[in-house]
Amino acid sequence: MPDTATVTTPPGTGDAPVRRRPALSPSRASDFKQCPLLYRFRAVDRLPEVPTKAQVRGTLVHAVLERLFGLPAGDRVAPRAKDLLAPTWAELSAASPEWTELFTDAEAGETDKWLASAEKLLDAYFELEDPRRLEPEACELHVEIELGSGVLLRGYIDRVDVAPTGEIRVVDYKTGAAPREIGEAKAMFQMKFYAVVLWRLRGVVPRQLKLMYLTDGQSLAYTPDEAELVRFERTLEAIWQAILKAGKTGDFRPNPGKLCSWCDHQAHCPEFGGTPPEYPGWPEPDAGEETALDRAD
Ligand code: SF4
């Protein structure tokens, strides 16, 4: 782990309860941009959502890739990665037993078919790069930085590679089932978010932001510049101010669009004839936390 990133223990894993300041994460910032009411349902009301098998598969594949980079370089081959799937799934499903309820037809070998579909994502990964030739500085890196304006940014970066010359590459694996064109703007927003965080933590603008789409075996690389990150930082500050303003009054408006089909909360949404629960007030301590599912979309 680098010494320049703030690394903290996930909430609830230490001896004492962890109280954390409200922060902005890329997933929650994207939610607010997409639909303020969706942000409220997720970050303030914290309404439960039932993950899809594709989301859980994404979490599994991310965990396997993280473990793969924990192996000696020469062992990072596709068969070893596939061997990691079943034991990693055993651990994840023990930690979140509700995920096993997604699989109802054991006799039809539903779980085996699902694990086989995760193998395909790993095959796509190995088509894109050879992990034996890489030595990432960090995987699943928790980062946190307070901007000059007082906005606290927080997130998890799938992988950070640092070249001997000091150039930084931010890598994100995309495993979601949603069409790529729908997710691309969201993914780029997320990558710029991480670029701002790393730039402010280390004083170096990342050389490359790389998205690896494991469902279609393609990748997208982008080189940010400092002026762009300055503008993006202002955008993040404006989003946070808008969130705080809505948070005071509870005025989170719905903004319907094509992503409503992926929203779990139509039953509570006035756009679909529903009624939101009574506003519980601005949450303390934290309205910005991301789940493992958020991080693996
Ligand atoms: S259904 Fe659409 S408009 Fe309603 S909360 Fe969800 S994303 Fe927003």
Automatic annotation (TrEMBL):
Gene Ontology annotations of biological process type: DNA repair
Annotated ranges, domain PD-(D/E)XK endonuclease-like: 24-270
Keywords: ATP-binding, DNA damage, DNA repair, Exonuclease, Helicase, Hydrolase, Nuclease, Nucleotide-binding
Keyword Ribonucleoprotein found: no
InterPro entries on file: PDDEXK-like_dom_sf (IPR011604), PDDEXK_AddAB-type (IPR038726), Restrct_endonuc-II-like (IPR011335)
Single GO MF annotation: exonuclease activity
Polar residues: compositionally biased ranges: 1-11
Spans annotated as Disordered: 1-29, 274-297
Name of this chain's protein: RecB family exonuclease
